[in-house]
């Protein structure tokens, strides 16, 4: 009986640890660090809402440098079916679509981006995102963590 409780406790602890690892995000790497950071299954992390009324848009930074001369923040952007999101970039950003699809429009060019597609948005560009289902992208921007 005690072995069964011990095994159950161990399994529960591992499950909580795994869940916590999936939720770990927003890590700012100290300037001068030589240590690699690793985020297993990052595409399954919880992504917080952008809290823009009427849109189903989510953004979550995962990791960022703390170098004030060369800030860079990387994370996930997700959009789900519903109203479009229009965003004006105050920084340069690159996005690679990793799941689903999203329509991206800068007012001149409109593309349906799918997994493997890479997009670049220069500082000052105004971009409209929409989707017929949902889309997930990995983002990397020249900004501080949580500066989107």
UniProtKB/TrEMBL annotation:
Keywords: Signal. Transmembrane segments: none annotated. Residues 1-20 form the signal peptide. InterPro entries: EutQ (IPR010424), RmlC-like_jellyroll (IPR014710), RmlC_Cupin_sf (IPR011051). It comes from the Bacteria. Pfam families: EutQ (PF06249). SUPFAM superfamilies: RmlC-like cupins. This is Ethanolamine utilization protein.
